[in-house]
Design goal:
One of its GO terms (biological process) is signal transduction. InterPro entries: Tcp11. By secondary structure, the chain is an all-alpha fold. It has 10 helices and no strands.
Length: about 325
Amino acid sequence: MSKVCAPVRDEKIRELNQKTDVIEIFKGIMEILQLMRLDLANFTITMMRPNIVASSIEYEKAKFAEFLKVNTNGLQFTEKWLLRHYDPTKITSNSSDINAVRQLTHCLLTEAYLDLLEWDFNPDAETLMLDQGRLLELRDKTSRLSIIGSIILLVNNTVGAPIHGVSSFKKNIKQHLNVLLDSVHSNKDLETVMPNIVLQVKTDLETTLQEIGSTLLSIEMESLLEGQILDLINPGHKIRHLINLRIRQFLQKIILSQSAAPQQVPPGLSSLQEELTAIVAQFLILISHNRSVFGEYYQEIITNALIKKETENNKDTSAIHTMDL
């Protein structure tokens, strides 16, 4: 068995070799055989994954093409979503320049993808229907992470030196706030749980200050901190907006990057590096697959938008010439 099982099972094999009871040995053999079956299944899936992904892309393409045959205006919401950041007055690309169209599509699509992680945005585009559930889950995770980051930054700025560098405080507050925010899916939900969040922050802060032997916060300082945290309910709050912007720019930089080199986590988000990295990994997988399936449609939408702009410009030019004559 030691020669055919995966290396990860070597420890189990060694434990089995040390047993002397026949029943325990037989039981151990059966357990290892079950694990080996699982390892074989995982190995097979890993080996077949590229083929499965490639097949799923072609399958989704074919099914969506069938959908468009039945629905002539089947990209209505996709077009609205993709062109949300399209400003004809700032675009200099020409529809006949394929490379320019591709680059413009890439940039606009990146912004459109990032919009999906905002609480006030729903993935209702036709090309996002299959991934809607996973996108909503990532949206909630990202928004909650932004709230946690904002609270940690507020606490650090308000309390100051006593808790700087105390990793246990950040770890505990992240765990506790994640639990409290688990049921939050909108800003309205956030408003409901915010009083509990304030209580939890005050409790964690008091516990940490006691552990490190520091002076507890005064009543005035507690009231100040409580008010600042409650103000985070406002989506336009400066610190909340700042954290949101840094997360968005971090994701944008990774998506637009042509290099596989790791990107540095933005200032103020180092305590959330693990969670942010997990979100980035999931998000990149989703949008990469989406782009592979629907990339042609996205490029066609951008091309049509450019053609429309060029046609309107030509009409304006013709009208000016006519007036001159």
